Each structure stands twice: as structure tokens, then as C-alpha cells.
Amino acid sequence: MAYDPNDADTKAAVAAAVKAAIDEETRGLKAKVTELMESLKKAKKGQEIDPEDHARLERELEETQGKLTEAEKKLKTATTEAEKHKKSYESESQLTHRLLVDNGLTEALLKAGVKPEFQKAAKAMLAGQVVLVAEGDKRIAKVGDKTLADFVTEWAKGDEGKHFVAAAGNGGGGSGGSDGKGGGTQKKWGEMTLDERTASWKADPVKAKALQDAA
């Protein structure tokens, strides 16, 4: 994959790396300050104190404390920046996930013969089972160990999915429409009378629910 400095994933990774580096530097400076303070305490306890060594230790301690203060400021800024890019990356990842799953389901459902008016209901039933798996630079939509297309194909042939699939002879001679008069097409939920809706629920609750959800 080509390096893209404006990619949300890249920005989040860079920000996290910068934060980690500054965090490590800060820990090192804190340890150095502790070490120098201990050295000064030991020097003060001694019967003879070399003025030059004492002055050197104090200068080094002062310089290290100054560096530590600056590092802590940088760490605070880096932490804020890392959190911002992390949220941006998570938001973009969620959007990408939704788009890939939605588009993948649309294509798979159409290929499996699911009627357009049942797409919304079918997606609502299946979307939660789909995960994106990284394969190299690509993200592949899967359900369990099956690709999304294979899973939907099997689902459409099963007891649950078959109610969403258009019959091969639908609309042909002698085939019944939703009103049972033959030759008609499936009415939408909003086009049905109360009696037709009641009959639909009694005849096929799953199909009736799908029609209602798609309205």
C-alpha cells in the first residue's frame, strides 16, 4: 500500500508513535532527576564536599528539571493530538465498514434474487453478522468463514431467506399476485388494504414483516 500522509490510519499511527517517543523521553528525564537528587543528598551527608562537584550536580539537576518540564508540556500536547487522530481514525473506519458492508450486501442480495423492496429488511437482519477481515491491503466482508456473497447465497436458499426471494415464475401465467388474483405483481405495504395486510400476516409472517419494514 502506498504511503499517504493524509490517511487517517497513517495520522493516527504517527501521532501515537510521537506520543510514545516523548513519553519514553519523559520517563528517562524523571529517572535522571531522581538520580541527581540522590547524588546531592549523599554529597551533603559527606564530611567533605567538593564545591565544584556540588555545583556541577546542582547545575545538571536544574538543566534536567527544565528539560523535564518542557518534555511534560510536549507529552500533554502529543497526548491530545494522538487522541484526536485516534477518534478521527475510528470514525473513518466505522464509516468505511458501513459502506463496505452495505454495498456488499446490496450486491450479494441482488445476485441471490432478493426483491428490491425486501432489501432494507434483509440488510437489517444480516448486517450485524458481517465482519471485515484484512487480507493484505484489502478488507474482505465475511460471515464466519464464508465470504459475504457465499453466505447470502446460502441464506437466500434457506427457510428464512427464501421468503425474500422472487419466485422464478413470478408474474407469469397462472402465478398469483399478492391479492391472489393471478398475474399481478407484489403490492407494497402502503398499497394494501387492511384486509390484504391481515391476510399477508396470516399467510406468511416473515414476508409480511419484510414488506412492512420496507415501507
Structure description:
The protein is mainly α and about 220 residues long. Helices cover about 65% and strands about 5% of the residues. Strands 1-2-3 form a 3-stranded antiparallel beta sheet. α2 (about 50-110) crosses α3. The longest helix has about 60 residues, at about 50-110.
Give a quick set of tags describing it.
three-stranded antiparallel beta sheet; 215 residues; Four Helix Bundle (Hemerythrin (Met), subunit A); mainly alpha; 6% strand
Write the layout of secondary structure elements.
Elements: H1 8-45, H2 51-111, H3 119-126, E1 131-135, E2 138-143, E3 146-147, H4 148-157, H5 194-203, H6 205-214
Antiparallel strand pairs: 1-2, 2-3
Helix pairs in contact: 1-2, 2-3, 2-4, 3-6, 5-6
